[in-house]
């Protein structure tokens, strides 16, 4: 009986891991890709979409901490899916048009410095916190792909 339970647990774990492509990291019900090259926000978003994914949408503190733990392995700043380019001060997830229900802004941010900061980044000196930045900056990015049939439990 114990042997059967171990086989079932291994099969379940293996199924979760196999749902993410090589080079992507599984967390909860999504797979994430952390780039090691730099691009603008728009080009980063297009790169994610070419892989049937979107720039990462962070919905909980737990997800934010997972993102941070992976970013620290690579270092640097990373684009997320957030933007207020459509309506200044109204931050939303570009892939869904939904407002940010969860946020983790660095104190004093977002500040739209020089009236040109419309895209969301995290990492670097901000660590787990977020900052608004010019979308034309060239930084790393995080793609997120929701699992179609996640194995939970």
UniProtKB/TrEMBL annotation:
This is C-type lectin superfamily 17 member A. Residues 27-144 form the C-type lectin domain. It holds the Pfam family Lectin_C. It comes from Mytilus galloprovincialis. Residues 1-18 form the signal peptide. Keywords: Disulfide bond, Lectin, Signal. One of its GO terms (molecular function) is carbohydrate binding.
């Amino acid at each position: 009986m114990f042997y059967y339970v171990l086989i079932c647990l291994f099969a379940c774990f293996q199924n979760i891991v196999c749902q993410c492509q090589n080079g992507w990291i599984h967390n909860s019900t999504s797979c994430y890709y952390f780039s090691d090259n730099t691009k603008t926000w728009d080009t980063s978003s297009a790169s994610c979409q070419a892989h049937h994914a979107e720039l990462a949408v962070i919905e909980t503190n737990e997800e934010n901490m997972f993102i941070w733990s992976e970013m620290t392995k690579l270092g640097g700043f990373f684009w997320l899916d957030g933007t207020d380019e459509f309506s200044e001060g109204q931050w939303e997830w570009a892939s869904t048009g939904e407002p940010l229900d969860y946020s983790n802004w660095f104190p004093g941010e977002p500040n739209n410095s020089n009236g040109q900061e419309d895209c969301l980044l995290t990492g670097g000196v901000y660590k787990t916190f977020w900052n608004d930045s010019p979308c034309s900056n060239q930084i790393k990015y995080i793609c997120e792909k929701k699992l179609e049939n996640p194995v939970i439990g």
